[in-house]
Amino acid sequence: MAVFQDDELKEAWASILGKEKYVLMLREIADSYPDKRSVFIDYDDIDMYSSQFAMYVMEAPDRCIAAASEYIKESAMPPSWDPVNIVNVRITSIPHDAKVGIRKLRAKHLGRLVSVDGIVKRVTPVRPRMTKALFRCAKCGQEIWVDQPGMILAEPAMCTNPATTCNRGPLKFILDEQESIYRDTQRIDFQESPEDLRGGDQPERMSGYLEDDIAGEVTPGSRVTFNGILRSAEKQDRNKTTTFETYLDVISVEYEQHEYDEIVITDEDEKAILEMSRDPHLFENIIDSISPTIYGMREVKAAVALQLFGGCHKVMDDGSAIRGDMHILIVGDPGVAKSQILRYMSQLSPRGIYASGKSASAAGLTATAVKDEDTGGWVLEAGALVLADGGLACIDELDKMTEQDRSSLHEAMESQRISVAKAGLTMALQCRCSMLAAANPKLGRFDTEGSAIATQIDLPAPLLSRFDLIFVMNDVPEPKYDRKVTQYILKVHRRGEARQYSGSESPEGVDIDQIMEETVDIKPKYSIEQLRKYVAYAKQHIVPVMTDSAAKMIEDNYVRIRSGYSESKTVPITARQLEAYVRIAEASAKMRLSNTVTDVDAQRAIDLVAYYMDKIARTQGGILDIDRMSEFSSKDRADINQIEKIIKDAGENGITTEDIISAASHDGIKAAEVNQTLEKLSRRGVIYSPKSGHYRHAG
Ligand code: ADP
Ligand code: MG
């Protein structure tokens, strides 16, 4: 490695900063200081001057940046410039191949310029940090200035007064906090992006310090590239230690322009993507590529496939926005592969995050104000939905989430932002993500005969209504289906076993080639990589518009279902489902890389909504009633009133359970429902039971 001498450094900077754009930038700084006080130098310009020098800047950034500052102070500013003013030298656009992952940072990187990508997890408030400390010798009062490059206060080594003998005895210096020089500083904790993690690794974290004009700009949840110098700091405990924490002394921050930037699509990829989009079996193929080891669940897979693409985000003339992201909830008995699907989707989706409502970190699903150990102040920590901004948040066991998440989740799902106001901290974070959630029934298993869905899941009804699609999955033994699932799961396992033999000889009694051939449908049609690229391409390039005919189809379907109200006196469907239709249809068009939403897309939406409404909102009488999602549906409420009336009419003598059931059956109420209602009414004290199997009205 060539070492540059002082005059060579000066010459290099003189040449680079002599370029017109930097001359203009420096002139602007001179004119508007201190509002503008940083010069941003593009790494390419350094490289263009000399790649040797550019490499040296990476190796010895402190020395090179100091030389640049020196050059600016001495030669680049107008004569009126006060040499006490400080111009920050910030190097930007460090090439991709110089990027280092957080977990790959090593001792050899200390003191070097590195570029690290991450998601911001926490930011502390901006606080002053001492950059130059003024000490006074306790004996003679000599003033001593000490530069403070690190995070721990550096004291003078000796008294600099030549006239005294202070240095002979024990030294003591007094810090003058008033006169010392400070700069704004902020600590940022960030972690590896989920894209860089494989196989369920926990993301590694690190801290960076941002100083002066770049402090206070970054919000939790943002994806940024930090360019900075890796430094070490002694761990702040009393025991002397030789292991050090590292932190990044950030010199510049780059924001990602687009959420799909991280997926590189070459011309060749584009050709393959367009080819894929023309395949008449595209939809089927994509479904087949989602969790191929899971049998069945075609509708759920279709829905989550469409969710990857999402609807269109719209901003209306009045400035209001309509979300395009689709939210999907899967509720079901344990062991029906809910978690499996969620994990798969979090891997498949660009910017996918998997988190569980139960074991989510302190930050939970949304965002939390937490006490910062260093500063003792409140800081905001981003939760899973914020980290998934621009992607897919897969939230398992949503029903187990904390009370705090429960209260902020509505806003997060609908307006896609989270506002936190706590301990003087108010902040809004973006969470423009789709949510794929799973929940278990309250009592372990679904009671298919039983009451409204909402009463069986521990989630508030208003939250349920935020989901575009809700799938209910029962695990009811059914010999024909069970055999198919069993065969399929065994097939998966056999393929997994056989794969390890590829090329080598089969063990006796089995034929590896034959197993591989018979199980070939378990291999996804499109690889994860292919599908990610396809989704990224569609999201970047396609903004579909609905055709007249598709709009009419959705309109007719919606109005037809609504008209069921006049007979059944239940509300079959609400405007929320209407929005779901639109988003699903748009997603379907995007999936086809079509700029128009056509009848095919409308039909897909109609079919999916019909499928889920049928499972969730149809009463035992076969009527659609969207209120079945809520605590007491209008039908349930009518049933309760009817049963209460039967008992009241029986008067003083009361009535037996059998007689109530028989009377209620005339109104189409099932025995199971009667029993539940009797329990409910007893608990509320509306009726009582003078003897077993006998009820009387309390009123
Ligand atoms: P849940 O989260 O719904 O409780 P899991 O995702 O933990 O369920 O799944 C339990 C196990 O059962 C998984 O190993 C999964 O592979 C298997 N399984 C359940 N249903 C199916 C299915 N339809 N096809 C293949 N495997 C299944
Ligand atoms: Mg699970």
Secondary structure layout plus pairing:
Elements: H1 6-16, H2 20-32, E1 38-42, H3 43-49, H4 51-59, H5 61-76, E2 88-92, E3 113-123, E4 127-137, E5 143-147, E6 173-191, E7 205-211, E8 223-234, E9 244-255, H6 267-277, H7 282-288, H8 298-309, E10 314-315, E11 321-322, E12 327-332, H9 338-348, E13 352-356, E14 367-371, E15 378-382, H10 384-387, E16 392-396, H11 403-414, E17 417-422, E18 425-430, E19 434-439, H12 453-456, H13 461-464, E20 469-473, H14 479-499, H15 512-518, H16 528-541, E21 545-546, H17 548-562, H18 565-568, H19 575-591, E22 596-597, H20 599-617, H21 634-650, E23 655-656, H22 657-665, H23 671-683, E24 687-688, E25 694-697
Parallel strand pairs: 1-2, 7-9, 12-19, 12-20, 13-16, 16-19, 21-22
Antiparallel strand pairs: 3-6, 3-8, 3-15, 4-5, 4-6, 6-7, 8-9, 10-11, 14-15, 17-18, 23-25, 24-25
Helix pairs in contact: 1-5, 3-4, 4-5, 7-8, 8-19, 14-15, 17-20, 19-20, 21-23
The protein binds adenosine-5'-diphosphate and magnesium ion.
Adenosine-5'-diphosphate is lined by residues 294-296, 332, 334-340, 485, 488-489.
